[in-house]
Amino acid sequence: MKLAVIGAGAVGRSVVDLAGEYGHEVVAVADSSSATVADGADGRGVGVDPDAVVARKAERGIVGDADPADALAADYDALVEATPTTLGDAEPGFSHVRTALERDRHAVLANKGPVAERFGDLRALVDDSAGEVRFEATVGGAIPAVSTVEDIEPGHVTAVRGVLNGTANFILTRMAAEGLDYDHVLAEAQDLGVAEADPSFDVDGTDAALKCVILANVLSFGAADDPVDAREFTLDDADVEGIRDVPGSALRLAAEDGRTVRLIGEATGETVRVAPRLVPENGTLAVSGTQNIVQIETTHAGRLNISGRGAGGPETASAVLGDVGRLE
Amino acid sequence: MSDGIDGHPDDDPAPDGGHASTESSTHTVRLELVDEPGQLLAALHPIADNGGNLLSIYHERGNKTPRGRIPVEVDFEATQERFEGIVEALRSEGVNVMQAGTERYAEEVTILLFGHLIDTDLSDTLSRIEACESASVADVSLAAPQGTEEASSARLRLEARAGETEAALAAVRELAEEKELRLVEPLTGVEA
């Protein structure tokens, strides 16, 4: 498949880098201010040189000399939307996806905004398009959460829960293991590159909530006979508590009793909730460090657990490229 | 089914089905003891002497009843008839029996609370949880590493009546919100 990759952060760059390995060709790459479009975008079959894109981005902060609009207009089969997640109108990601669908091309999202904040709008665009939308990479990085729910069928899934933010999990794990307080561990996580300079999105539960909102939309729309009847979720529908105030003493009290605290997100077709929860210390959900886990409750197949890396360029790119493969 | 573990199959049948009196079931009594040596033992004698089979004792030393006494929760097995005899014997020994019932609490749930637990009157928090119909506080552990000024944490083990764990949690949730405390709930039903 011919891919246009919009967004040149860790995920976008990894998609560019790995696409060839999966048998796909990158014909255009754009970041917020620049783009490169392969000579072969007119059909001559010469893709973008991944090394050159990565080098230009590192050296000059641009991916090429073309305009981002040129990448959106390139001759691709699927557009990979890997720009940063934005809330509310989910722009500019939403418009990128709209452009692809209006051109009857597929869109594969790593950006959570459009599926978390405008799922209904997106569905309407898909209905009028020959293209499809896939978004495995938006939930749990490398973990095949969305496709597993789809395989089981959303009508046979009663709930999806899990640890969906590696930064928050790293902080809680280190606090419990070392008896350190939040501020100390956060500083350590920032030094290690596990937490951002502004960690709010992760530690306040927003990121985990967006993932749960996406899962709730998958469950709700997937289970409805008619999409008109499906309840649409956005971040505003989620009940969210973060880990910022959790004192070290609370983790010690939990440990004395064989328990620990994890930031757990839960989604059903009716509710979305993210909060620190008590879980058994050696239980399935008490994954360590930056690991994520997704637990799926089903009506006929019991409980499924999938754990793995919930973030990272190549990890998330593997989910993106898995989606591209499903579109072939 | 046991038909009277101590061999009294001829005890009067209970009105509700005719066999309850010979079946041992678990009972919980909540006692109030004066904080003096020997009180606990004195309270346990009437249970054993009247055919009760002791299962567990929660001695809530950190917790005081409104009268400044120590609440003790005792679980034991006995037939219904013996249970009534035991409660009578306890009362005639001068032990204050606050609550007595069959399998009053069937579910246990552990929660964490953190925030200004001391400033918001921890004992009031606990007695208000106690006052809620659904649950009883079985155990409290407090950690206040920075003294009373800073946020402290508590781990509470609640015992809830069968099927009422969710109601108990809802009551605690409401109380936590009112006192601006943070509540960490367990993932109930998911403990695998």
Automatic annotation (TrEMBL), chain A:
The protein, known as: homoserine dehydrogenase
Q: Where does L-homoserine bind?
A: 196
Q: Which residues are catalytic?
A: 211
The transmembrane segments are none
Question: Where on this chain does NADP(+) bind?
Answer: 7-12
Top-level taxonomy = Archaea, Methanobacteriati, Methanobacteriota, Stenosarchaea group, Halobacteria
Residues annotated as domain Homoserine dehydrogenase catalytic: 146-324
Gene3D superfamilies in the record? Dihydrodipicolinate Reductase, domain 2, NAD(P)-binding Rossmann-like Domain
Q: Which domain of life is it from?
A: Archaea
**Where does the chain bind NADPH?**
112
Show the Pfam families listed in the entry: Homoserine_dh
Q: Which family does it belong to?
A: Belongs to the homoserine dehydrogenase family.
EC number in record = 1.1.1.3
